[in-house]
Amino acid sequence: MKCVVLAAGEGKRMHPLTYTRPKVMLPVCNKPLLEWNLENTKKAGINEFVFIIAYKSEMVRNYFTDGSPWNVSIEYVNQGKALGTAHAIGTVEKFVDDFLVISGDTIFGSNDIKKMIKTPQSMGLVEVNNASAYGIVECKDNQVKKIYEKMTDPFTNIINAGIYHFSPSIFTYIKKTPKSARGEYEITDSINMHAQSETIKAVDLQEWRDVVYPWHLLDITEDIMKHYHFENKGTLHNGSTISNNIAIGKGTQILPGSCIEGPVIIGENCKIGPNCYIRPYTCIGDNCHIGNACEVKNTIIFNNSNVPHQNYVGDSIIGEGCNLGAGTKVANLRLDKEPIHFISNDMRISSERRKLGAIIGDNVQTGINSSINIGSNIGNHVIIGPGRVINGEIKPNTYLI
């Protein structure tokens, strides 16, 4: 059996982080989303993969190559123009027989994948608190009857989890699938046709972690850290203090006066300190510097970024190659303690979070004493001058001097 992985999309709702990488390459605990799925699928017993790619496909190819570092084989199919999930799956007809399909930007647990493998002609389902953003699934006697896309007032909280076990018969229905209202060929429409003539079994999932908006990376990182295998391969200098559940990569130096309160993950070749405070559920990539008198809390920092001098960063995501000038502070709590809104692609979205700092794209630089307000969206290659106060959405390649 082969596993077909849908990895072609940009993920526009993840802006500004996906301006410079496909959504499946967003890091969770210092590994791409797609790598978590590859490893979990391998644990479930599948070693042959077909990655469907398109947007910035070279990043996926360069990272995963032929799969040999994971002792699996990977074939690549370029979807070309993104015409929907049914179109994407239709491109692999000549590569597969009985096969699994998973969405590469959603993490599935190995036990759930095993259940899907054992259940031919099936679809994974999960129950969520708010189903309005997902495909709603009507079931009867453990069979899928119909999928309804994104209902404003859903009649159930059971949704399409984005994992399927198909036989070659699915391609018959894909070829009959018309374009949807948004101009794409949707696999859910293909399944609806399929379910009218053949049985599609419903499989309840228990280990499902979805990422829709940037702050969901904070949620999924916290969730995974609760079960993470922590290992220290770095160097602790005298005068540094660390608690339990700290992972430190090779070549990383924890300098005197640094206090790290776990769970925390720190990558390779980082310089931490002196005299900094790193608080729980922070994940720091490779080649980063957290410096003197800095405090970082519940934040994801991508590779090659620096928070070096008198900075505070809370409940935020900082992209790759960023540098915060001395005294830059990121706010993460409204004065009235109400949920924080986020503006992306000129649309205002409730994060439903009481605490949310900034989502910062790649290669952003701030000047000294910059202030970044709650829920700020800063695009890639933005330069912020000294003393500026930042609010809302800042488009990529903007200079605020």
Structural account:
With 401 residues, the protein is α/β, with parallel strands linked by helices. It has 2 domains: 2-212, Spore Coat Polysaccharide Biosynthesis Protein SpsA, Chain A (Alpha-Beta Complex); 224-400, Hexapeptide repeat proteins (UDP N-Acetylglucosamine Acyltransferase, domain 1), CATH 2.160.10.10. The protein has an 8-stranded parallel β-sheet with strand order 16-19-22-25-28-33-36-39. Strands 5-4-1-6-11-8-12 form a 7-stranded mixed β-sheet. Helix 1 (33-43) crosses helix 4 (110-117) and helix 5 (170-176) packs across helix 6 (187-197). It is globular. The N and C termini lie far apart (56 Å).
Please provide a brief summary of the model.
Helices cover 15% and strands 33% of the residues.
Tell me the number of structural domains: 2
Global geometry: globular
Helix content: 10-25%
> How large is the radius of gyration?
22 Å
Instruction: Give me the CATH architecture of the largest domain, please.
Output: Alpha-Beta Complex
Assembly level: single chain
Residue fraction in strands:
25-35%
Per CATH, the class of the largest domain reads Alpha Beta
